[in-house]
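Here we describe the complex-level prediction in full. Unlike the single-chain runs in Section 2.1, the two entities below were treated as one system.
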Amino acid sequence: MKIVRMAAVGVAAALVLTACSSGDDGGSTGSDGTPEAAEITLWLNGADTPEELRDYLKTTFEEENPGSTLVIEEQTWDDVVTKLTTALPDAENTPDVVEIGNTQSPTFTTIGAFRDLTPLYDELGGDDLLPSFVEVGMSEGKNYALPYYFGSRYMFYRPDIWTAAGLEKPTTLAEFGESVTALNDGTRSGFAIGGQDWRNGISWVFANGGELAVEEDGAWTSTLSDPNTVKGLEEWQAVYQGASNVPATERDVAYWDFLNDSAEGGAPAAATIMAPGWARWSIGDLTTNDDGEEVRDGMADESKFDIFALPGVDGGIAPVFAGGSNVAISAQSQHPELSENLLRIIFSSEYQQMLGENGLGPANAQYVDSLGDDKFAQTMIETAAASKLTPAAPGWAAVEAAFVYEELFQAIAEGGDVTELAAQYDERITPMLNGQ
Amino acid sequence: MSTTAARPAPATPPAPSPSPPPAARRRRRFSPTAYVLLIPAVLVLLAGMGYPLYWQIVTSLQEFGLAQQFGQPPTFVGLDNYARIFSDDRMWAVVVRSVVFCLVNAFATVGIGTLLALLMKAVHPVVRVVLQVSLLLAWAMPLVAAVTVWKWLFDWRTGVINWLLVQMGFDQYSGHTWLAQPLSFFFVATVIIVWMSVPFVALSMYAALTQVSDEVLEAARIDGAGPARILWHVTLPLVRPVLSIVLLLQIIWDLRVFAQIKLLQDGGAPVGETNLLGNFIYEIGIGRQDFAGAAAVSIFVLALTVLLSWPYVRNLLKEDR
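The structure predicted for the assembly as a whole is:
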């Protein structure tokens, strides 16, 4: 029922929006100014966008554009760059609207793979849109990709275990390292993190004021050898070696499983983990939902499950890797107007609020309230405000695809000399960042 | 077969009967039917293999990256891509690794497959059918599903293999990560690939073994040959044509192995140290969007495949004649 009501509101709002905008720009439209009915395709990545939101997009789009249909195809995060590389240039097979990881955007915006969205920028939210994401989607002053949602990561921990060891929520990064190291008893990790898990590990680099790469006069340089970066990497090395029993080759592990009591009700595999906010729903005691399925209770027992933001070097909050994605229209799309209509739905207040209600940070700052005001929402907003993006270099997607940082972090986790490794990888990464 | 055997001297066929052949030859030369019949096959070969190969070669001689993929005209750079690839140390490490991996896997597969075929020949028919069905099931298992199951078996935290080893008293395998070190990574990969390709070899070899006539084996036995000698000096030479084609196919397949390694790497492994040629090409072409470099490596792999399989192809050609 809720969906139907929201859909109705959405349609009304979207109709108003389209009414305002129709006639702005021509293109392949029918005689009466509305786009010809057609089927358009939207690529979403992973299961991040919940089913409820997908249904809303479909129904609203189809009601608002009579005769047209929206097909949503789910891509995996691992393969999306590959698939976009082959699909986007092909007018026959290109998806019309695509979601793309924020850090992957520059790879495509710099070569004209996306449609220029500058004319729509103000209508879709303008300056209210998340600035760092807008910036990463720009090329030569034009908007090619706009923010879809943001996320951030923070620490989930077991207060019962921490308290039993006489420890409290840490206030500095150094204190965090000492505490989780003390909590590691050989089988239970104080802080479970895989060696290759650089997306969590770079928080230590950022917290120490380090950068992965900097741009000067249009050329990118990898700055792993920068003293601040080296310091951050060395601190991370100490934390990994002292606190984690997860192998150095692991990455993207389902850490939330580590925090739950083991299947037999025994001790958990870790006292602390770092994860995106939505991990909450995979953590907690087992309970039964309305459909009779066994689920986690979403950390209902505060004495057993709690969160905190990773503290900074001198207190405060450490900058973490800003998760999230952008959305763009393929330059080769055969139905640019319908695609723009879809963007209007995505950036409508209804959809933005739905994002927030589902724990995804809405692209438009006006709707951040929809995330709620509990500790999860507060911590998410705080950590997101302090979060940082990876370098917006044209070759960044290539660096990710070649698993270069995974290799580097594994080598560091295995106890390699950070200064030497940093110099060695700087040499390898710099040409890749600039598209060799 | 019988006509060639009947001829006394195959080396000098045109001499004996001078008058009919010219006419026959002329008729054959001007008969268009044969050539017309050849056209579909040639077209399919050209379209299916020649065209991609042509593009592969052209791409390998150009600068072709993401910008070109999105419509910029590519520039001709001659052999630059090859020079770049061949001067890359990582490339040679991958080549050596791939060739060793390919040969180990191909010989292991053919060895185990042949032994299984001999076993099938020796056991009771009911057992044989059970064996054959199990082999077929293993072979019919979709690749991704199979690798996923193997990955679970070797999982460091919840895997059955580690659990079994610990139960057997090898406590150091508690939490052991099989995919972390390149050597044990390739051990796991070898287990999976051999497991997946043994059924083909075993069934082919079994078919070949059924063609070895019992009289020959009986004669050998009467002459006093033991089982080992019969196998080595009678059976294996008789099934050699099948053995060599199966080995050739295995070498070609194992040199091109890609998906198994990629899936295992996704489970957490040192990617750079476990890349084989297929994964290396994927990383360059798809990962780094250096399509020209990937094309150059692909052409090199083609040459390498021809080089590795040449002795067998030559043998096969000889046997055909």
